[in-house]
Amino acid sequence: MSKARVTVRSGFKDVLAFGKLISVRKGIIAQAAEAVPVKDFAVNKTARALHPEVQHMTVSRVVSVAPGVKSYVLTPDASLGTTQCAYFRAGQYLSVRVSINGAIVTRPYSISSSPARALDGEYIITVKRIQDGFVSGYILDKWRPGTKVDVSAPEGNFCYEPLRDAKTIVGVAGGSGITPFLSLAQAIADGTENARLVLLYGCRSRKDALFSDLLDELQESCDKIHVVYVFSDEKVADAERGFVTRKIIEKYSPEKFSLFVCGPAALYKFIAGETADMGIEQKYIRYEMFGEIKNPTALRGFPTEALGKSITCTLMHRGETLASITCSCEESLLTSLERSGIEIPSGCRSGECGLCRARLFSGSVFIPREADKRRLADARYGYIHPCMAYPTKDITLII
Amino acid sequence: MDKWDIIIIGAGNGGLAAAATAATAGKTVLVLEKHNVPGGFATSFVRGRFEFEASLHELCGFGKNEGEGGTRKLFDELGISNRIAWADVPEAYRVISTSSGNPVDAAMPFGVEAYIDKMEKYVPGSRPSMEKLFALAKDVSDATAFMGTIEKYDFEVIKTILKEHLNFVRTAPYSVNDVLAALEVPKKAQDIFTAYWCYLGADCGNLSFIHYMSMVYSYLTLGAVVPKGRSHDMSLALASVVEKNSGEIWYNSTVTKILSDGGKITGVELADGKKVYSGHIICNCSPNTAYARLLDADMVPQSALKRANARKFGARGFNVFLGLNRSAQELGIKDYSVFIYGTSDSREQFRHMCDLDGNDGQATVCLNLADSDCSPEGTCILYMTSLFFDDVWAKVRPENYVKTKRAVAAKMIADYEAKTGVKIKEHIEEIEIAAPMTYARYTDAPQGTIYGYLAEDWDGVVPRTMMEDADNDIAGLRFAGGWGTQLSGYSSAFTSGHDAAVQTIKDIEKEVGTNE
To answer: What pLDDT was estimated at residue B173?
Structure first.
């Protein structure tokens, strides 16, 4: 101990105060109430209202949008305990859980209705039939008013953020990629979001443009919304002909804008090419997640020795072997698991959200470099996102 | 396996340290975690081309050499110190406070000598009092090291403390401000010295001098580090120690009940109905949660209920994570960590943090100044932390949640720009805002509290340590993490987890002795 004696009040008082530390604490505790502490708190309730583990919904209405495209109005199913729609930001999606022939699968669908409608107790999602689509076909054929559907809390970050984005969003939509913009346009029109939207909507022809009536109406009623149709196969007055090229983007964009892109993978590639020399900073271009990769074998780096092969995946959970299944090397691990009737948490199916994160205990997988959104340490310790991992050898996976 | 020596609820820093300690000691250990990642608040997340650290500003108690500092010692014992790549935090902190009359803008270095020299530069004449303060710090540090070895506070121990550690005894009952005043530290030097208070979560009129001084002394003598793989790297390293020693961590496994029979803890039940058994449980959640929701009513004694009701919750978290599209150099960011307060006195600062609109305090870190490779070239990561000391977020409705947190974030960003002169707004490429709801969501912490119980004077580290035995009033159950004896913070949580495991192992050994 240093030689200098320190006193705060006085030598005697200080030692006395030290001696009292315990009795003071005992005294305060003794005076406290004996009731069982509060079980729940407003902040925790709000957190659960915003991010419920699951939302039990009922299809209350089905609206035919176009051939092979339907909108489903989902309302909370109070009989199963869901009394409200979790509020969301325009551009977010719901991960829809469906059971098809014993396989439990999820698919992310952007919410196409406005956040304000969620406060009135409904979400709308729009489903387009995809050729050979496992889930879209099922939904379009089976869902009808009264169908019970479990969906996730609203997820995703394809949202306007005023602290980050320019005040004008230039939205490039391809096909059914219109849905998040439809939500955003409505949110702008009803004042939920304060931004301008220039929507460049690329389709084959007028009849392929989904929700054009609603879009036209929104444009009519709100001067912050400008819709430009870009038809590749048809020449229409007041619409552009061709693709959403650099020229078209420049023609309709103000000096400062944030480019938001949603549509099929081919559109992303095209837009990336068109914008490459436009000098747009990376922060001003955002692509919505692409979802499951349709043709992984075409990806750069896909191991040729795995082509056409399948492997055995041993699945461990809570220290026990859960199953041993055969997986195609050309399919994501998540899809193979679901095909075998095994349900693990999942969300974006694009490698981003991390909900399906699991440990690759042995074996090896191919992870497309551009879709590897794992944490640094996860990659080092052998954790993978099964939605974006293609097995190349027999593996053991711990979930 | 259904039967375990020890079951640990929650894989946060405390739970993981407890599990790693117990598994290394040869006990069979099961950790139950509701998420699919370990770490609790010690984690990271990816947005665009950035991986954000979720909570750690700088790790305390981790020196350069083996065995230097409490956390280092524990990580050495567990064999993970060298498995984690570390980056050195370059300087202690900068503090800017702008209240009229007492403006402060001071950049403080590590190293006691350098710190005192710099303080003399900012506050001429402060040297004698600062030298006295750091001589005292050494005494305090020795005393707390001694107290860390104590099993039970009996008469002999108290006698030794009174004899060998009198300066500790004389300052232990008091707040930081009391002791600084007694040592006649000039007010401006006090305002600079107390900047770190928000790491511990009570203002310096309320915060134990011993607690605060120990932390500052550790920072200044040992420096600080951050793991390059973010705190998630530490979480995974600890998890791997558990698994290598035959322990198990079950993810996606929420505990809904602690089972008991005839007054004895027997195990836990999971949300899906599965039951696992052990007579020894270490809880990494809040005692309030355990008492109100997990334990059978007959298992919670009056003393525990009263204690829970007497305490207040500590800081609720608020964070703004920014991925910027310019390098720190291009932007002119010079400080790794800067505390910005709207007023210079910590009691006033605390009061401001009880108000949703009036909160003007932040602790902001630019990770690249410690770890230049933490984000792609030409970018940097900046994260801003504020705290709320009242349940002001309770009134925020779900539909106003995003707007409310964005308004708070916008104010913090504007404040940072105004006070440091660094312009960042135009360069935000990624932004994520975490509010108390976020913390409530991820860990179920009451009200989104990230610091456990408030470190008030009567419930500070010294009385908590001295009453640890009395507080441990449910046989078979101990607590680890920020809600425990050591209070919150990374190094404290690790220590508390380690201690909980050591004590539980002793409990088990005692039981074996009785059964024989």
So the answer is: 95
- Mean pLDDT over the full length of chain A: 95
pLDDT given for residue A17 in this prediction: 94
Interface A-B: count of C-beta contacts within 8 A: 237
Q: Are B38 and A381 in contact (CB under 8 A)?
A: no
Picking from A233, A266, A287, the residue at the C-terminal end of a domain is: A287
How far A232 CA sits from the closest chain B CA (Å)? 31
Q: What is the C-alpha separation between B365 and B238, in angstroms, rounded? A: 25
Tell me the whole-structure pTM to 2 decimals. 0.97
Q: Are residues A308 and A368 part of one domain? A: yes
Distance CA A175, CA A187 (A): 21
Chain B residue numbers touching A30 (CB-CB < 8 A): 306
Minimum-distance CB partner of B288 among A20, A37, A319: A37
Q: What is the mean pLDDT of residues A107-119?
A: 97
Chain A contacts of B331, Cβ < 8 Å? none
Nearest CB to A4 within list B132, B391, B409 = B132
Structural domains present in chain B: 6-84+228-312+455-515 (3.50.50.60), 111-223 (no CATH), 315-443 (no CATH)
> Does residue A44 form part of some domain?
no
Please state, in angstroms and rounded to a whole number, the distance separating the CA atoms of residues B415 and B320: 13
Q: Give yes or no for a contact between B191 and B159, defined as CB atoms under 8 angstroms apart.
A: no
Angle formed at CA A281 by CA B426 and CA B333, multiple of 5 degrees: 40
Q: How far is B3 from chain A (nearest CA, A)?
A: 13
Query: Mutating which of B437, B439, B464 best tests the A interface, going by the most A Cβ atoms within 10 A?
Result: B437
